[in-house]
Amino acid sequence: MRVLLSGAAGFIGGAVRATLQSRGHDVVALDALIPQAHGDRADPVHDGLHQVDVRDHDAVVALLGGIDVVCHQAAMVGAGLTPADLPLYASHNDLGTAVVLAAMAEAGVDRLVFASSMVVYGDGRYTCRQHGGQPATTRTIQALEEGSFEVGCPVCREPMGWALVDEAARLLPRSSYAASKVAQEHYAIAWARQLPGAAIGLRYHNVYGPGMPADTPYSGVAAMFRSALARGDAPTVYEDGRQMRDFVHVSDVARANALAVEQVADLPSDTFAAYNICSGQPVAIAEVATIIAAAGDNAPAPVVTGQFRSGDVRHIVASPDLARAELGFTATVSPLDGLAAFADAPLRDR
């Protein structure tokens, strides 16, 4: 198939491009090369890359001739924890996606795969030993300052344990970035009905691997730990380090995109599906830091600080079941192996 891939010069987009091509697909690659993600490079850095901003309707339409599926990876990433971030995320993610969808409609392209995120779930899912599954309560500053990091049961106030989040969970964004990802999903749902077309949203969990950006405001925590070790510093871990996450290797994420591209072509019109893209092997943040540090040469041990960021989610761990059943996706790289290998994997400045 002929696939238009946005964000093709990025960490995930580059891996998706290589995987699609290895499976015989013809990839038309575009990327805006925005400074936040790529530094000050002004020229395309990959052969055949079109330097196009997805918010440029006419430029996107011009690339859609003969395209079977659009694989939309372009986005502004990062936490987006303050209201000042809202215009940035709304412009690149909300408007960018809306322009892509409008351009697809104009060009008669009705198949879409796009990058969503675990952040759409907000606080994750929790269960109380006494009262079963319960909605998350807000962790107060006072409790965090006292070192009480777990989410309390709204009935008995006792600490709750984490539970797997499946795709039917309510979407509750807690940041500018999360709000933009929910918006992207909603635009795709509306587009699939109005056109009609078919769309698959892939809710990535913590993606890591070779070529990941180094220590920037847009890096993931694994890269931040790596960057600290490269400076000779101990990785610093917030709270008590027992926060649970799912880390999924970029090669698995790329394969999930290829499976989605190949499957969306056969879906009926007026269809939207979302899938967790995860390893299915939860790991604590302190363990992530320890694995990466232990794999390095004479690396300092991580330091669990007890400090906190009020906007952080305590636990967010995904269920891989639906992606396995419907998309045929199961991660092949375990976090224990992948994170150890990541300790000396090449990073990039941007």
Number of helices: 11
Please state the CA-atom Rg, rounded to the nearest Å: 20 Å
Q: Report the strand count.
A: 16
SSE ordering: EHEHEHEHEEEHEHEEHEEEHEEHEHH
What would the average pLDDT be, to the nearest integer? 92
N-end to C-end Cα span: 30 Å
Q: How would you sum up the global shape?
A: globular
Secondary structural class: alpha/beta
- Assess the beta-strand content as a share of residues: 15-25%
> How is the quaternary structure best described?
single chain
Molecular structure report:
By secondary structure, the protein is α/β, with parallel strands linked by helices. It is built from eleven helices and 16 strands. It has helices at about 10-20, 35-40, 55-60, 85-105, 140-145, 175-195, 220-230, 250-265, 285-295, 320-325, 335-340, and strands at about 1-5, 25-30, 50, 70, 110-115, 125-130, 130-135, 160-165, 200-205, 205-210, 235, 245, 245-250, 270-275, 285, 305. The strands form five sheets. It has a seven-stranded parallel β-sheet with strand order 3-2-1-4-5-9-14, with helices on both faces. Strands 7-6-8 form a three-stranded antiparallel β-sheet, with no helix packed on it. Strand 4 (about 70), helix 4 (about 85-105) and strand 5 (about 110-115) form a beta-alpha-beta unit. Helix 1 crosses helix 8, helix 7 (about 220-230) packs parallel to helix 9 (about 285-295) and helix 9 packs across helix 11 (about 335-340). The longest helix is centred in the first third of the chain and has 22 residues, at about 85-105.
